[in-house]
Amino acid sequence: MSIAIQALEPRFIDQLAAWHQAQWYHLDDSVNEAVRRKRLAEHCDTRSLPATFVALEDGELVGSICLVAHDTSDRPQYSPWLSRIFVAPEHRGKGVGKALIDRAKAEMRRQGHDALYLITEDKGPYYARMGWINVENYKLNDHPVEIMKISLH
Fold first, then answer.
1. What is the DSSP-derived secondary structure letter of residue 133?
2. I want to staple 117 with a disulfide (CB 3.0 to 4.6 A). Which of 22, 38, 78, 146 is the partner?
3. To the nearest 10°, the Cα dihedral for 52, 53, 55, 61?
């Protein structure tokens, strides 16, 4: 297995939008696949936010991670965010998610950020094992989630 993490390329946008819609449509029904494609098109330049990195295994798209300034408008004190961390089901358990997170953390550190946030519905223990801490239990469109933080120092 050879995993490469790189900046999003336009050729991967359709697949990512479909994956993201299937995974997270229930959290915000105002966002459809077309909206996701449009937003992802703005994520290809990873030198600033928003940005998306993709994981490729032998050239095949297997996962992604987005970086955004704000993932929820009513928590401006938290920034920047990891968002839409996704690994294709058949590639889970291989370290792809951790590789994507490590790349995102390195990029945010390079850009001068000292912390990073994320929202998770049910993966709190996974992130906690990597050093993330719960900073708030939150309702995202009436769905209970955790807001978690990690120091980049």
1. E
2. 78
3. 40
Give tens-digit pLDDT for 81-135. 999 999 999 999 999 999 999 999 999 999 999 999 999 999 999 999 999 999 9
Which fold is adopted by the domain 3-151? Answer: Aminopeptidase (3.40.630)
Residue 27 has pLDDT above 90, yes or no: no
**Distances from the Cα of 81 to the Cα of 1, 14, 57, 65, 89, angstroms:** 29, 23, 25, 10, 23
Q: For the chain, give every domain's residue range.
A: 3-151
- From the list 76, 84, 97, the residue with the least C-alpha distance to 27 is 84
Are the CB atoms for 87 and 61 separated by under 8 Å? Answer: no
Question: Residue 56 and residue 148: Cα distance in Å, rounded?
Answer: 26
Q: pLDDT-derived band of residue 32, with 50, 70 and 90 as boundaries?
A: very high
d(CA 97, CA 77): 26
